[in-house]
């Protein structure tokens, strides 16, 4: 399955996908193109380093959100993408985009949704005083971090943490969870029933939400 990644930032999740594929841990899934809306962002550099084609489309160059989405779609289609993975992509996609990839756009969010959607989720969780946070991979709908949840990993908030320590602990779990979920989708092990998503053959330790295996 050809995966297109959209990103706006440093691209460590993109790197995790690239590295997992190189280790043979992504099954038939592989990143074939990386698109970004921020010139010079780390994700574009990481893709270039890995020899993956890239494109840059700045949302600022488009009067309407739909026009921006069409431009993204054109590029992704040109590369035969079957699954779109958002990895720190800081734009809301419109139905124009989502209807072209039904249940084929996923996102990773650094909190246990539906708690702490939106930006600075790790700081929101830290400031909120929760004892556990984590990350969520979900299908994307037209809302902000509101689509059906596919998988989550739980991360404890430890005494002595600050928001940055929590961010890094969550990020390490993101890098494990995202490749595993994309592999499961590529292998046809993920099905959607309204808000409930079923993932077959991905044992999760219910005590702490960690994925035991890929
Ligand atoms: C990650 O924390 C991800 O969960 C969120 O944006 C951040 C992207 O980080 N959606 P990176 O660019 O993958 O390093």
Kindly describe this structure.
By secondary structure, this protein is an alpha/beta fold. The chain has 2 domains: 1-102, Formyl transferase, N-terminal domain (Rossmann fold); 107-214, Formyl transferase, N-terminal domain (Rossmann fold, 3-Layer(aba) Sandwich), CATH 3.40.50.170. It contains 6 helices and 9 strands, in the order βαβαβαβαβαββαββ. It has helices at residues 12-22, 42-49, 65-78, 95-98, 121-128, 163-186; strands spanning 2-7, 30-36, 54-56, 83-86, 105-109, 132-139, 149-156, 190-193, 196-199. The strands form 2 sheets. The protein has a 7-stranded mixed beta sheet with strand order 3-2-1-4-5-6-7, with helices on both faces. Helix 1 (12-22) crosses helix 6 (163-186) and helix 5 (121-128) crosses helix 6. The chain starts with a strand and ends in a 15-residue tail after the last strand. The model has no long low-confidence stretch (mean pLDDT 94). 5-O-phosphono-beta-D-ribofuranosylamine binds next to helix 1, strand 5 and helix 6.
Which labels suit this protein?
seven-stranded mixed β-sheet, 9 strands, single chain, 2 domains, Rossmann fold, globular, 6 helices, 32% helix, alpha/beta, two-stranded antiparallel ribbon, binds 5-O-phosphono-beta-D-ribofuranosylamine, 214 residues
């Amino acid at each position: 399955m050809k995966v297109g990644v959209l990103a706006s930032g440093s691209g460590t999740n993109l790197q995790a996908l690239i590295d997992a594929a190189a280790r043979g841990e992504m099954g038939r899934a592989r990143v074939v193109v990386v698109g970004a809306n921020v010139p010079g962002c780390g994700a574009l550099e990481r893709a270039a380093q890995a020899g993956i084609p890239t494109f840059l489309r700045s949302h600022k160059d488009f009067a309407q959100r739909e026009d921006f989405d069409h431009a993204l779609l054109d590029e992704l289609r040109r590369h035969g993408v079957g699954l779109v993975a958002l990895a720190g992509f800081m734009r809301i996609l419109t139905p124009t985009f989502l209807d072209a990839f039904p249940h084929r756009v996923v996102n990773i969010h650094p909190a246990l949704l539906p708690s702490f959607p939106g930006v600075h989720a790790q700081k929101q969780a830290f400031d909120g005083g929760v004892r556990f946070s984590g990350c969520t991979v979900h299908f994307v709908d037209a809302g902000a971090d509101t689509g059906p949840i596919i998988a989550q990993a739980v991360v404890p908030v430890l005494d002595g943490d600050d928001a940055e320590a929590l961010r890094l602990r969550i990020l390490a779990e993101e890098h494990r969870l995202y490749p595993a979920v994309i592999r499961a989708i590529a292998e046809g092990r993920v099905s959607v029933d309204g808000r409930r998503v079923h993932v077959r053959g991905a044992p999760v330790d219910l005590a702490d939400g960690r994925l035991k295996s890929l």
